Amino acid sequence: MRRVKEKTSNNKKIAIVVSMTEFVFQLKLESLLALALKMDGWHVIVLTNNAQNIWARRFFEAFGLTEFYDWDDIKITDLQKERCTQYSERLLADIDLDFKKVKSWSYQESWVGPQILSSVARETHKGAPDIKDPGVLARMRELLPQTLERVEKAKLLIEKLRPDFMFGIEANYALMGPIVDQAIAAGVSFAQVVQPSRDDALIIRRLNTNNRRMHPNTLTTDSFEWISKNIQWTEERENELMEEFDNRYGGKWFLQSRNQVNTIEKSIIEIQNQLDLDPYKKTAAIFSHVLWDANLFYGEDIFLDYEDWFVQTLKAACNNSNINWIVKLHPANLWKRARDSVEGELAEEALIREHIGILPGHVKLLMPDTDISTRSLFALIDYGLTVRGTVGMELPCFGKLTFTAGTGRYSGFSFTNDSHTVEEYLQKISKMHTFKPMESEKIIIAKKFAYGVFKFRPFVLKSCRCTFRYEKLGHHPLDHNLSIIAKTLAEVENNGDLLKFSAWVNNPKLIDYMDIKSDDSMPIMG
């Protein structure tokens, strides 16, 4: 691969790979995509931290990428440092400082508040770090000036290198967030690359001021409008979508199956008997999020945070005994806690103990290690509740009315019941048993949206193979791995995957990467 010949050009466009990790799988993915740009004639620069990421150079050089820029080589002036320190002290000196105020913090067109809070939440494994806690305050006092200095450094980086395109795997937290925000502020095309629930694909999306706070695995309104006009809902499309659900919940993909460990499909009667549900009542399920993981970056919340949503939703459910309530704790709690070596009580259990106590008989708690498959719940329940989880675009495909408590990847597309205030949302819970089933037209809209996300958005990898595993104890550097299966550059070109990536990059008007083969008039704005 390192012998790849670049296209000759007198005016090469500059691409920066933002790689600040030693994670082998991520380095390989970044190298492969960077190779695609190099093959297409781009001048590729790898932004890394050579002092800490000793493996980065070796992997990128193996792919023929030899130009590096060290993050630590970017030096800001003493005056800029002092400005960051003073601004930090002014923010932290607020005697009425609370979670909401911290979340609103911004600096030089970078929204730094969520980056700080999420970094602390990730470390403490709490969805809403207590701002008054001395330990949290101390950590924020340490992180804030560092984050502001990163904003200044990111501005200098972009001003010096003047890139035409940047991409990275992570786009948030206190390290990456400022770099992405400054790229967008400078008008630089920045793409976030994430992995969906399937093992053989990526999701790629350009970030801009309009979609910066939206999860990348979604559709722009223009993308969905194109799908709505050009995709007729046929029996064949229906079968393809149901096959996607079979793959997601049937164990085909490791990345999704880790959320369905030791679960089995159960009938409605079996679940009713197992959970002691009243068969004569309707049933609603609250699909809890992982409270502390990446929960501050996407969309606008009507509640203060996920913890506030969880507690208030659960209290409202306790007060409505007209239906059965299932509180489903997210199964990702298991592997994410194991990955971070976290033991003891779940954050949700602590919240229930502190704010509610013993749950009434009509409210059932479904733990992350339940043997009931999520797909089984789709058949059982009448209503679903989430802030912005993936389940919000899955349940409506099965005709289940879904209530949201914040904007997200599918809000505003008419197939979910969205609330604009806490009062409106809680009022709906109090009378949820009176809501009628979804209209057939909205079910079709939901199916088309899910079809677009599951079938058109994935960038399927053909020149490499991703493999995954998890040891029961500890970590292994190759738990996630990527192997090149293309033997030659000619085979890479024949596979077409890297060519599709570079073609998408070369059209800056394309927001969503979408694999549409049958029409040249793809949606371009969003």
Any overview of this molecule?
The model has no long low-confidence stretch (mean pLDDT 89). With 526 residues, this protein is of the alpha/beta class. The protein has a 7-stranded mixed β-sheet with strand order 3-2-1-4-5-6-13, with helices on both faces. Strands 9-8-7-10-11-12 form a 6-stranded parallel β-sheet, with helices on one face. The two termini are 35 Å apart. Helices cover 41% and strands 13% of the residues.
Structure characteristics:
526 residues; alpha/beta; seven-stranded mixed beta sheet; 20 helices; 15 strands
Strand content: 5-15%
Q: Structural class of the helices, strands and pairings?
A: alpha/beta
Query: Which regions have little confidence, pLDDT < 50, spanning 5+ residues?
Result: none
Task: Give the rounded overall mean pLDDT.
Answer: 89
How much is the radius of gyration in Å? Answer: 24 Å
Percent of residues in helices: 40-55%
| Helical stretch tally | 20
Largest sheet: 7 strands, mixed
Strand order of the largest sheet: 3-2-1-4-5-6-13
Q: Please give the number of β-strands.
A: 15
What form results from the Cα inertia axes?
A: globular
Distance between termini?
A: 35 Å
Which SSEs are present, and which pair or pack?
Layout: E1 14-18, H1 24-39, E2 43-48, H2 56-62, E3 68-70, H3 78-92, H4 99-103, H5 112-124, H6 134-161, E4 165-168, H7 173-185, E5 189-194, E6 201-207, H8 221-230, H9 235-249, H10 254-257, H11 268-275, E7 283-287, H12 306-318, E8 324-328, H13 332-339, H14 347-355, E9 363-366, H15 374-380, E10 383-386, H16 391-394, E11 401-404, E12 417-418, H17 422-430, H18 440-456, E13 459-460, E14 464-468, E15 480-484, H19 489-495, H20 497-505
Parallel strand pairs: 1-2, 1-4, 2-3, 4-5, 7-8, 7-10, 8-9, 10-11, 11-12
Antiparallel strand pairs: 5-6, 6-13, 14-15
Helix pairs in contact: 1-20, 3-6, 5-6, 5-7, 6-7, 8-18, 9-18, 12-14
